[in-house]
Each structure stands twice: as structure tokens, then as C-alpha cells.
Amino acid sequence: MGPVDALMLEAKRLFHGRGQGLNYNIDLIPPYILIDSFEDIDEAALEKIISELPECEGIFYRNRKSREPFRALRGSIPETHHLIENSLRYEINLKDNQNIGFFMDMKPGRELISQLSKDKKVLNLFSYTCSFSVAAMNAGALKVTNIDMKKSFLKVGQKNHQLNGLEKNVQFLSYDIMKSLSGITKKGPWDLIIIDPPSHQKSFHLESAYPKLLKKVDSWLSEKGMVLACLNSPFLDSGFLLEHAPGWEVSKVLYSAEEFKEIDPEKGLKIVLFTRAES
Ligand SMILES: C[S@@+](CC[C@H](N)C(=O)[O-])C[C@H]1O[C@@H](n2cnc3c(N)ncnc32)[C@H](O)[C@@H]1O
To answer: How far apart are alpha carbons 83 and 109 in whole angstroms?
Structure first.
């Protein structure tokens, strides 16, 4: 690989192991490179990987299997850091042993939301650190309602809006979505609803809760409303969403960003855009 262009600030995946049968990924989050592994990599193998990386200010390694946080192999880990995607800025957490607070593979979803959000009222379900909301407000959404059960994630979400000067007309609600369906109903309707639930959390059992939620979401949509439904499970394909959609039409099916390509895309991230069927 050649040297990193000093002017190139956008984050990107340099190596996607899962797409090639290997158990680690490498991300460039300028000016740092992160090696994120799902199994232990010994020091000699790490040095070999490092020898092929472009020049940068720091190289950090994390072994998720042993739940270790990142450690610096070169340079030092900063207290706070930001990632840039499509010129928007997001705070990331390099101290966490599982997630940095931003899912880079969802870039095509955020880009689609940017294309659709102008003058729309948007509901962002399972908002996490609100990256969809930042993209929607930047594209001219009228307002966004973010809902996530974890207050700490919403706080980062709030910061992400502030970092981009997009905090006006954005709401943050820390609700358990499945326990708050009627409370959410009272706040609607919305023109664009994003559903991006967790894949393996007890708080949302995909097989049973997703069909129930899709049905409810139908009653939260404005007349020409659209739904972006995401699914990131190797055990359920996009057919699961189509089967449980309450009479909506499929407008688009997208997968992870190009550099995150899976051998079988249906085993990775699925992003389905639905529109209300014409009556
Ligand atoms: C896959 S992440 C969402 C990623 C986010 N859409 C993004 O683009 O960065 C799943 C989120 O769902 C939240 N969550 C899980 N179960 C929930 C529930 N029952 N109600 C509300 N939020 C929930 C978690 O706290 C987590 O932030």
C-alpha cells in the first residue's frame, strides 16, 4: 500500500477480513489505523501486517475475543477522536472494547437517507449515536426524532449533532422501543422511518419483535411515507423483511459499503427501502 494522502481525511476500511475468510479488519481513521481482530494475532504476525500498512500517526490493535480495548502498536491513543464521512464529523471512542460508536459499513444507508430527507420528518429507531440523524439534518430534514434505550449513546448523538452545527429540531428519547409503542404513536406521524435494530441483543429479539414493529410502524407513517429497514444477521436474509412488511413496496435493496463486501451479501448487512403501496 502507498503512503496516506495527508489531505485525505475521510475514514475508510483498508482490509475486510470477513470477505476473505480472515478474522480481522483494518480501518483507516485518519491519521490513525485500527487493526480490529476477532481472535488473537501474535506479535510476529502483527509486525508483518504493520509492514504493509501506509504511513500514519498511530497504529492501534484490539482483540475483541478477549474483550481487550485498543492498545497502541505505534504512536499513542488520543483521549478523543473524530471520524469524517462525507465531510460530516462523528465522535468515536477508542477506549471501548467492542464498538467505536460508529458503524462504517452503514455508509450506503446514510447516503440514501441524505438523498431522501429534504423537508421530511424523520424517525430514527435504534438510533445509537445518531449518525443517520446527522446525515438527515445535513440534507435538510425538517426534524428528526432519535430513539434509543441507552442514554449514554444519545448523549454522544447529541454531541455528533453539535459537532456539525445541526442540533436544531432534533429530539432524543431514551425509550425501550417495544415497551413504548403507544407513546411513540402519539409523537408521529413521520415521512421517513429508519429501523436499524441490534442483531444479538436480548432487548430486541429479531425473529419475534421485528415483524411486530414493522406492523406498528405502518401506523406511524404519513400518507407517502417511506421506511428504511435494516437487518444485520447472517441467519436472516432480506426475504425476512419482505415477508413481514405490511403491504409496502420494495423500492431499493442495498448492502454494506463496497469495501465491506461479504462473500454472500445476504449474510451481511441488508438495507431495504420500502414505500407505501399505491391504493
Ligand atoms: C445496531 S445499533 C444501531 C446503529 C445505528 N442505527 C447507527 O446507524 O449507528 C442498535 C441500537 O439499538 C439499541 N437498542 C437495543 N434494543 C433496544 C430497544 N428495545 N429499544 C431501544 N433501543 C434499543 C442499542 O442501544 C443500540 O444503540
So the answer is: 17
